[in-house]
Design a protein that fits this description.
198 residues; mainly beta; Immunoglobulin-like; four-stranded mixed beta sheet
Length: 198
């Protein structure tokens, strides 16, 4: 390219030649909004009312080239996601299938999940893809999840006297709370020596 400079007062012209390179913006880094952190999620198998969505992080690019970023996911060390997890685009999240059921393995299962970022139309000379371990999903059977549930009595049955022949006594019921509300509670009544009632 050439720039021509003219000094009109002296009728002199000078040309300056230089080279300009026009190329696509090259991304040098894709930036994690919370680097180094791994978000933990858990799901109880068979509990369809349980939270099942893992929202994806939104990354940025440096410099701000404006390329469209698309997201995907996979299990760490694998080429894709486990069969019971699907990638959803609206909103962008990883979704645990509600049809997941308990198999013969009653142990806790942990899955490390990687988020993949791809820049659409980015030049090969720059950064085009990025992936990082972002999420950890723990699957529990109901028995495993509930084994450390903590039960607290909030409204006990107070001592009372019943007189034979006086008719039905008022209903007595204790009230409890527990730390894991999806865990089932069964209440039974027995004599203090645990022999039950005749």
């Amino acid at each position: 390219m050439t720039i021509e400079v003219t000094l009109t007062q002296y009728s002199k012209t000078r040309q300056v030649t230089f080279q300009a390179t026009v190329t696509k913006c090259e991304v040098v880094s894709i930036n994690d909004p919370d680097p180094g952190s791994v978000a933990s999620y858990f799901y109880v198998i068979g509990e369809t009312a349980f939270t099942q969505a893992i929202p994806l992080k939104t990354y940025t690019q440096t410099p701000a080239c404006g390329y469209t970023m698309t997201y995907a996911g996979k299990e760490q060390g694998q080429s894709g996601l486990p069969a019971f997890i699907e990638f959803q685009t609206s909103p962008q999240q990883l979704h645990v299938e509600s049809t997941l059921s308990t198999d013969a393995n009653d142990s806790v299962q942990v899955y490390d999940l990687v988020q993949i970022v791809t820049l659409a139309d980015a030049p090969a000379a720059g950064l085009q893809t990025f992936d990082d371990l972002e999420y950890q999903l723990t699957l529990y059977t109901l028995a495993e999840y509930c084994k450390d549930d903590e039960l607290t009595m909030t409204d006990p049955i107070v001592d009372f006297t019943y007189y034979i022949g006086s008719g039905p006594s008022p209903a007595k019921q204790a009230t409890f709370t527990h730390t894991k509300t999806i865990c089932p509670i069964t209440l039974t009544l027995s004599e203090q020596d645990n022999t039950g009632f005749d």
